[in-house]
Every structure is written in structure tokens, then in C-alpha cells.
Amino acid sequence: MAELKNDRYLRALLKQPVDMTPVWMMRQAGRYLPEYKATRAQAGDFMSLCKNHELACEVTLQPLRRYELDAAILFSDILTVPDAMGLGLYFEAGEGPRFERPTDTIDAIKKLAVPDPEDELGYVMKAVSTIRRELNGQVPLIGFSGSPWTLATYMVEGGSSKTFEKIKKMAYAEPAALHMLLDKLADSVTLYLNAQVANGAQSLMIFDSWGGALSHTAYREFSLRYMQKIVDGLTRFADGRQVPVTLFTKGGGLWLEAMAETGCDALGLDWTVDIADARRRVGHKVALQGNMDPSMLYAPIPRIEEEVSQILAGYGEGSGHVFNLGHGIHQHVDPEHAGAFIKAVHAQSKQYHK
Questions:
Q1: Is the pTM of this model over 0.85?
Q2: Alpha-carbon distance values, 40 to 52, 121, 213, 291 (Å)
Q3: HSE toward the beta carbon, residue 20, CA cutoff 13 A
Q4: Could you tell me the domains of the chain?
Q5: Per the count of CB atoms within 10 A, which of 25, 58, 126, 173 is most buried?
Q6: What residues correspond to the site Transition state stabilizer (predicted)?
């Protein structure tokens, strides 16, 4: 493998010294870029794009051609794992992801098999190895998965949900069934992420998109417990260096201390959290990633630069901060505003790394 030319993202996650704060954006390969839209049209639909390793590689690299980003993230979807379990994933216009066969009974859960990542998810591994080769050491490659709780919400609800009625009913009325499902998902995600590392991923991120929908105690029981199980089972060293792990619970600001106890290397913060407060609470234990509101990218460029300045000042001096948005970039953002954001992070952050 080619030697890494820019490793400041990996160094920041491990709280090692850097020359400036690294930056990347969740969903940086996506619908705000005209070149992405053209490639997706070429693929035909979203899942065809995910399953074509050459096109998945192309869209992963597109934002790196435009911007001086400090990391690439595998182009894929969090629902690849339930899809590989045979649930029949499809995307409905205006509705988002749906499953033909929801996992909403204990009998359906018992029938689920843990997928072989090199077989049923071989197309993801092919994308990982292709992207890693084509990056040629330019920046590190991030592999990722959804958290067991988040994957389970889609599987039980049959798709996206605003109320989480079915999954919460299972959590409180049939907890044994839900724990069986979460346990299988934790095993599946662990194998899936370790296979990504074996194929070239240099950092891992677990997206717990719906953890914030849980009560204080239910979060620990149904979400954090299974992310802990995954962290305990991950490959943490490859290619002669550490493989950092980031946990991100959207709406998870209440539980930062508990998340930091898992043994992960970094926590993702959404925009509802004050980064100065987060660093006071957990900064000695873990690095922090975040956390500008993605909607700020609609603002005039001077306002974006001002927000970057405030967040950098909030984190303060020293390493351990990866600048990012508090969630994925919105599809209608002007690509020039995204570029100004990235430049502002690099230019303004040097003063904090002397």
C-alpha cells in the first residue's frame, strides 16, 4: 500500500500533534455535487451506484478533486447489512429506504443469518480496496456502518419512521426479541467493519442516527451496549498503525461520558452540543469530531467563516479535534460554500496548533 501523504486526520483522532485541524464532511460524496448527480444517473439508481465498485470509487474521489479534504469516506449506505440479511431493500421516491420483508416478529428475527462480509457484502469490500488503491496514499479512507439500534429501527419499522412506534413497542413489550436482533446485528457489524479494515479502511465510524430517540436508560440498554460490543471486537491495528474508531449518536449529547467509556477513540458531535462543554466533559479521554450545523452552509461565506472561528475557539488549543458538520451536508448547498468552509477550517486553525 502507498505511504500516507496526509495523516493529520488519523493523528487528530489519536490526539497526536497536527499542523492544522483536519476537516471532512459527512455525505461529502453526495447530491450537492453536480458530478455526483451525473454518476448516479449513469448508475441508474442509488443501490446500483453502491454495488458498482468502480462508480462507488469515482463518487468517493469526486469531493477530493474539488476540495482539500483530510479524509475520504467509503461511498455506501448504512442499510447494506440488513439488505445482505435478505430483507429486500428498495428506495421509494420521496419515501426513502423501505424493506419488502420487515423484521417485526421474533420468528423473523430467529431466521436472520449473520452475513459473510466477503460474500453477501463482497461489493462493499471491492469498493473499499478499489478506493484505497486509487487514493494512492493521498488521505486516509474511512470505513463505516450503522449502529445495531439504528439498523434495527429500519428493519422493524420497514423503513424510515418519525415516531419509532414499532421498534419502541418491541423494546418495551418484547425486549428479549429486540436483544436477539441487536445481538445478531452487533456480530454482523463487527465482521463487516473488520472486513473493511482488511480491505484497506484506515479508520472506522459507527453512525447511531436514531439513538437520540431513546430514553435515558433505554439508550444504554438498546444502543450503547451494542456499540460497546462492537468496539470490543474491532481490529484496532493494521498496516503498522492504529485504526481509530469514532462513535456518533445524533441527539446523543446527554451520553458523551458513557460513550467515551466504551474505549472508542473519538466521539462525533451534532450541532446541538457546545464543543467547549463537550471537551470539558470528555476531552481528556477521546478526540471530538464536529460540529457545525449543516444548514450554516446556506449562509453568506463571511458568516460561515465566523461560525468556523467560533467552533475552533470553543475547542481551543491542541490536537484532538476533527472539524466536521454536525450531520450530513444538505443536497441544495452551493459547492462554493462547502469549499469556503474547508478553506476557513485550515486557515483559521493553524493558530491552535503551535
A1: yes
A2: 11, 20, 32, 28
A3: 16
A4: 22-289 (3.20.20.210)
A5: 25
A6: 77
